[in-house]
Amino acid sequence: MVSGSHGEHPRHPGEPPGLSEATIVGRAQDGDLAAFEELSRRYQGPLFRLAVRLLSDRGEAEDALQDTMITVWRKLPSLTDLPAFHGWVYQIMTRRCMSVLRTRARRSTDPSGDDTFLDGVGRGRLGSGTGGQDPAAATEYAEQLRGLNAELARLPDEQRACWVLRELHELSYPEIAFATNLPLSTVRGRIARARQNLAKGMEAWR
């Protein structure tokens, strides 16, 4: 049985008025393939970006996404708190990625070197105040992205996972605790340490 209270999420663009995500999840639980396809359409992009950011390997990210969607379909009937679907899906993907990272560490293998932790992130999400048409500002922004990517690569996997879920995927602290199976205090501590490490590391890129 899977449950959890992670708050309501806004209606997605294009979603018919009155048709909540929980309703679509319920239909998918009843075997409505069209409903599950709609959920897959919404989540595959964000989940793939999460996997790339955590694994820094697009091939492994694709495998993790496929495994996650299979698990979601297989375990969907056990989800009792339908509004918790958002956090539940992120939990499955996060745990799958952390399992891959643990296996990689035991084998002492390195990722392919993609280091695309910030793939798909816009200027506004990272708080850039530079103008979009200014070549000098664009160059500075690109340099900052390279620096942040480099510093993210240096973080411990557990810190990076919590930071990515919070800062790039905008999950709440309770959702991150649910996704990572960690106490809320541990999540807060890891995000705080990640922010400190990133701020210190980025001094050299300023």
TrEMBL record:
Biased composition annotated in UniProt, kind: Basic and acidic residues: 1-14
Keywords from the UniProt entry: DNA-binding, Sigma factor, Transcription, Transcription regulation
BP GO terms, sorted: DNA-templated transcription initiation
GO MF annotations in UniProt: DNA binding; sigma factor activity
Residue ranges, compositional bias (Gly residues): 121-132
Annotated RNA polymerase sigma-70 region domain residues: 41-107
InterPro entries the record matches: RNA_pol_sigma-70-like (IPR039425), RNA_pol_sigma-70_dom (IPR014284), RNA_pol_sigma70_r2 (IPR007627), RNA_pol_sigma70_r4_t2 (IPR013249), RNA_pol_sigma_r2 (IPR013325), RNA_pol_sigma_r3/r4-like (IPR013324), WH-like_DNA-bd_sf (IPR036388)
Coiled coil: none
Residues of the RNA polymerase sigma factor 70 region 4 type domain: 150-198
Keyword DNA-binding: yes
A Pfam family assignment: Sigma70_r2
Region of interest called Disordered, as start-end residue ranges on this chain: 1-21, 105-137
Family: Belongs to the sigma-70 factor family. ECF subfamily.
Record's protein name: RNA polymerase sigma factor, sigma-70 family
Organism whose genome encodes this protein: Sanguibacter keddieii (strain ATCC 51767 / DSM 10542 / NCFB 3025 / ST-74)
Lineage, opening ranks: Bacteria, Bacillati, Actinomycetota, Actinomycetes, Micrococcales
